[in-house]
Design a protein that fits this description.
Helices cover 74% and strands 2% of the residues. The protein is mainly α and 254 residues long. The chain has one domain.
Length: 254
Amino acid sequence: MNGMGWLVGLGLNLALWGVASIAPKKLLTPEGYFHAVILGVLVWGCLDWQGYLVVMIYFLLGSGVTRLGMAQKEAAGIAEKRSGMRGPENVWGSALTATVCALAAWGLQQFYPAGSSWVPILILGYVASFATKLSDTTASEIGKAYGQRTFLITTFQAVPRGTEGAVSLEGTLAGIAGSLVIAIGAWGIQLITPLGILICVIAAFMATNAESVIGATWQNEVEWLTNERVNIINTTIGAIGAMILGLLLQALQS
């Protein structure tokens, strides 16, 4: 993309920041909005409106699902802090991996055209990272609000809703649906192929369950494993898993 595209991204994100600052319902903290503007400019500059739309789908659906059953979750003490408003740590915990994929795809196109065959793989990783994060958010929030029976993923022992590493049927199905929404949306704007939809959903399912294993085993034992850092690990697993599957598919087709 040329310099004009970056200016369009900057103007759009500053305008949206202005609208958000006067909106009665805040989805991010003030610092969160500032970092979201940086993220939005980078994504628009690297992947144009298509990549930006994927971010918006995640952001709007993720914020919406976080607020489902908020009263019950707050009463149980398992709701997201700040009544679901996201801060800078949440912005980059969710989007750092995707941003790296977007910058790598843009860099190859601009500075190393010989490596342009990697661009679709990196874009697949970009989409898969957001599919993974929406899957994780949806599974967690629906499970905490509406899960009838929750089990620790490592032992299948019944545990209270909101326990780190807990899974439920309701949450699992909601997580799959969340990743499918992102993947179908990305396919609809021609970022990925129809097979890419399946790849993203598989990668997101694997990564979301890997995140639950981390939550059940190490997260409470390792001080630096904050929720945000686990989110980075989670989305990285999803992105790398999708890229590996994409490369294997390329090899089989050649």
